């Protein structure tokens, strides 16, 4: 049985999967658009399903609320379209570091979409039509024998929007999209030094399945390539 992590640990931003409110709407071009809303703010006196919250987490939640009380983000997730390319390239560029990627920083003009990354392989988080983050979810190579596997091979939130729960939202959306695609496993690779991203994946039920030790030499330091995967239940 896989674990989705503890939603209370996420600061209360995202509902557990079975309580979330996924909405599928028709996009302007007629295609399906995937939405996954942040949960509504709890009403005073509404304690239903409220888990006991450790003091440390209450403090953390209050910090989140402090920053966002006046403008609760209306962040939604949809499938990317060609026109998103520039915004995605900008986020990719702005979030590059040798902690996020073993590749040297690429020119800003480098196309975001390519042979293996079509718009339908990208889910974008947007707020008031402005793209604030994305996650790439694409079929694993060798589809003939790996058709049951999808891989996350790009995941970033614009620096000004990090720490708002958008990473959680995108991982939930990717999981739901993978289920729609009949996926049994989602795999990814993350640098050993990227502890923040690893913690986020672990909270969403991903497990470390392997480690290529000292796979990269980055800024004079050897860094592991960590292989993680999420097992999804077999379709009923
Ligand atoms: C990894 C990334 C996508 C997470 O996105 P995000 O929107 O900031 O994530 P969330 O707001 O959902 O927060 C995820 C966790 O990180 C924590 N966090 C947020 N900002 C943080 C910061 N500046 N430092 C440390 N932790 C932070 C949050 O508190 C949360 O932890 P919690 O669940 O215990 O509360 C984002 O940090 C990013 O774009 N990083 C650069 C690119 C990258 O590393 N991608 C992954 C490649 S494998």
Give a short overview:
This protein is of the alpha+beta class and 236 residues long. Helices cover 22% and strands 30% of the residues.
Q: Could you characterize the architecture of this molecule?
A:
The chain has five helices and nine strands. It has 236 residues and is α+β, with helices and mostly antiparallel strands. It has a single domain, classed as 3-Layer(aba) Sandwich (Aminopeptidase), CATH 3.40.630.30. The strands form two sheets. It has a seven-stranded mixed beta sheet, sandwiched between helices. A two-stranded antiparallel sheet has the order 1-2. Coenzyme A binds at residues 9-11, 95, 100, 155-157, 162-168, 190, 194, 196-197, 200, 203.
Give a quick set of tags describing it:
5 helices, Aminopeptidase, binds coenzyme A, globular, 7-stranded mixed β-sheet, single chain, disordered N terminus, 22% helix, alpha+beta, 236 residues
Give the cofactors and ligands.
coenzyme A
Strand content: 25-35%
Task: Detail the poorly predicted runs.
Answer: 1-71
Number of strands: 9
The number of helices is 5
> How are the strands ordered across the major sheet?
3-4-5-6-7-9-8
CATH-level-4 superfamily name: Gcn5-related N-acetyltransferase (GNAT)
Just name the CATH architecture. 3-Layer(aba) Sandwich
Order of helices and strands, N to C? Answer: EEHEHEEHEHEHEE
The main β sheet shows up as: 7 strands, mixed
The CATH topology is Aminopeptidase
Radius of gyration: 18 Å
């Amino acid at each position: 049985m896989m674990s989705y992590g503890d939603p209370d640990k996420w600061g209360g931003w995202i509902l557990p999967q079975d309580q979330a409110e996924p909405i599928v709407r028709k996009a302007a071009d007629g295609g399906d658009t995937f939405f996954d809303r942040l949960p509504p703010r709890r009403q005073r006196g509404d304690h239903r399903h409220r888990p006991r919250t450790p003091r440390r987490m209450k403090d953390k939640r209050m910090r989140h609320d402090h920053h966002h009380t006046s403008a609760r983000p209306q962040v939604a997730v949809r499938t990317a379209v060609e026109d998103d390319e520039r915004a995605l390239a900008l986020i990719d560029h702005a979030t590059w570091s040798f902690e996020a990627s073993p590749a040297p920083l690429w020119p800003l003009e480098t196309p975001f979409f390519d042979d293996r990354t079509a718009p339908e392989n990208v889910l974008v988080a947007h707020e008031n039509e402005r793209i604030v983050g994305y996650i790439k979810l694409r079929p694993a190579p060798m589809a003939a024998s790996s058709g049951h596997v999808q891989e996350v091979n790009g995941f970033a939130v614009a620096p000004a929007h990090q720490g708002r729960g958008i990473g959680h939202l995108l991982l939930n959306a990717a999981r739901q999209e993978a289920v729609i695609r009949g996926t049994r496993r989602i795999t990814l690779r993350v640098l050993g030094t990227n502890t923040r991203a690893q913690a986020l994946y672990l909270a969403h039920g991903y497990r470390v399945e392997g480690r290529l030790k000292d796979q990269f030499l980055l800024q004079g330091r050897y860094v592991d390539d960590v292989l993680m995967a999420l097992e999804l239940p077999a379709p009923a």
